[in-house]
TrEMBL record:
Pfam families: PNGase_F-II_N
InterPro entries membership: GLPGLI
Protein's name in the database: GLPGLI family protein
NCBIfam families: GLPGLI (TIGR01200)
Length: 205
């Protein structure tokens, strides 16, 4: 299980409202301040992630992603660990990561996984995502619990649900803006999200 220690305070959605006089009001909505958590279950071949959307938390389930990593001979030290470089493409982003064989587990931050050692550093080529292990604590035994939330949902269904919830939210906002005003509800751009494209979006018949 990997847990991000801090979450960003970025604005996730904006609503633009313009009245008859041309005055524009911008309303913003932020997600719940829930610590992102990812749980890998090798037994179930499943990855569970905590996702928040419109102030509601979901446990999103998917098959553990397979990433075609390319191993590079370059090495460097991160803390007390000797790490090797690897590159790979995952859901529309090109990643450069550093993993250590000294912890021979195929896991990493967020959904990055599948190397012969734990990933201690990862960065995408757009300089939008960066993961770095500031501290590694090795314990003999620790209880790891699957994330819990109000609802568990498959990833593909969750993406479709988000689209519907955006449409529903737009209708609700439309009833609250001043009469004769215009507004535009702007979801976050896909190219600014962690996952730019999903596997089923590239599938062909």
């Amino acid at each position: 299980m990997f847990t991000e220690l801090k979450t960003s305070n970025k604005i996730t959605d904006k609503v633009y409202s313009e009245d008859d006089k041309g005055n524009t009001t911008i309303a913003v909505m932020k997600e719940l301040d829930v610590r992102p958590t990812n749980y890998f279950s090798k037994k179930e071949d499943s990855l569970y992630s905590i996702e928040t959307f419109f102030k509601k938390a979901y446990v999103v389930k998917e098959v553990i992603p397979e990433i075609a990593w390319q191993l590079i001979t370059e090495t460097k030290n991160i803390g007390q660990f000797n790490c090797q470089k690897a590159t790979g493409i995952f859901r529309g982003r090109n990643y450069t990561v550093w993993f250590t064989n000294e912890i021979p587990l195929p896991f990493g931050p967020w959904k990055l996984n599948g190397l012969p050692g734990v990933i201690l550093e990862a960065k995408d080529d757009k300089n939008q995502l960066y993961f770095f292990a500031k501290k590694v604590v090795l314990a003999d035994q620790e209880e790891i619990l699957k994330p819990e939330a109000e609802q568990t949902i498959e990833l593909r269904k969750f993406i479709s649900l988000k689209d519907k919830l955006y449409q529903d939210k737009e209708k609700v906002i439309a009833t609250k803006v001043p009469r004769n005003s215009k507004f535009k509800f702007t979801p976050p751009a896909r190219n600014r999200q962690k996952e730019i494209i999903y596997e089923w979006e590239t599938e062909t018949d």
